[in-house]
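Repro case for the chain-ordering regression, as requested:
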Amino acid sequence: MIRKGEKRKKRYGFLIDLRRCIGCHTCSVSCKAENGVPLKVFRSWVKIIEKGKYPNVSRSFLPSLCNNCDSPICLKNCPVKATWQRNDGIVMIDEHRCIGCKYCMASCPYDVRHINPLKKYVQKCYWCYHRVDKELVPACVEVCIGRARIFGDINDPNSEIAQLIATNPVQVLKPELATEPRVYYIGLDLDVMDPMKGWKGWRHDDGGE
Amino acid sequence: MDVQIIYNIPHERPLGYLIATYFYLTGLSAGSFVVSVIATIGGKVEYKPLGKIGAVLAPILLIFAPINLILDLERPLRFWHLFVYLNFTSPITYGTFLLTAYPLSGLIYAWFVFKGPQKMANFFGILGIPLAICTHGYTGFILALGKGRALWSTALMPSLFIVSAMVSGIALLILIASIRNRFFLKNPEEREKDKGLITGLGKFMGGIIIMDLFMVFNAILVLLTSTKEAYEVVKLMLFGSFSLEFLWIEIFLGGIVPLFLVFNKKTSKSLTWVTIASILTLIGVYSMRVVVVIAGQSVPLH
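-- result from build under test --
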């Protein structure tokens, strides 16, 4: 267990270099294949927006996945401690303990958790811990054709991710919520990270029970 | 800047009507318990029947409330995990024990209200009040600590829940008491006295409705001037797809109309109108629970 204020020896982080992202959804597909994610739910996906007026237009991408926050609200709110955090920072769910109260899903500011429709408990992206433990990178990092996704130990100054974070302007999602997310973005567009931009309003057939 | 969303993954709303109903039932229970204790300890003999009605209602409602919670679980048979694996930063862990202790203390209170001695009823009544308030207050904390949702994560939420619980609890007591008055009281003199009590309770309800409306007004005003997500969620409630549930049912039918009925000179003396006011209030508070739970999750997070 890591106590408050104590520095982790190893802290995994995730960096997405959006200057290299082409919005091909290979990460979303590979995640489904690697983790056996059922139909209708996603752990990793890419939001795409288009902005401007012809001919001055551009597309922006927001590849989303669990931020494996350093101060995760899901962990604080889980009533049965089914959500726990490894010493290297990856936030895990004990599937034998989860009762499916969905409080974590309701409180996650990034909306990255889902109920597994077959097994009936909450799941999310774990940065492919089973691969990471065998010295491999997560599946989405492995397949990214533009090498836009970089995974590694942000506390190791010699790692590629630590060097990229140190030498580039980086950004995280919703930093004001103090969840301390550990997915960093280079070149993140203001309009794609704003959930309200281009949102057409809520309809009764959206996301029912 | 023109922005078009080309592709995004919509997510399911995690919490729905079962949770709203659960909030509603605990609110009803806590409210009617508190009013029952006030009536029991209040001293006057006339108030005693009200105390008895509340004492019966509170534990019955609280037996049905957690059933909604367990049905809402994806793994209902694992509900016992809540008693074994505790997380002291989670309001639901506190709720587990409150939801166990409060109906038990309510049952003991109800026993002494009916069988005496009065002293024991008073003792368990006073003991139960903080439990009742915590049991409903913690549901407010569940929402307030859901930091991802702008409508929920305000410091007002627990107090707002307690006030609306009181409103709904009194309304339910009025409804049951007027049914008793109409169909079960035979002596005309006694009936007239009882009627005075019920219309008095109506005025009490009116006072708390004013508090409730004031708090809702505060919440809406601050949300309108706070973050973008908060602004959007209030727009949904005022002009969007929840304006029927919020503006018309919760505020107008469930707030303003009952206020008029219980404070108007003519209608406030009529048992029928006060009963109608209480029914409207009950509908309005249910609508409030639905709006808070469902509209709160109806703006996108990514």
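Ordering looks correct now. The first strand of chain A starts at residue 12 and ends at 17.
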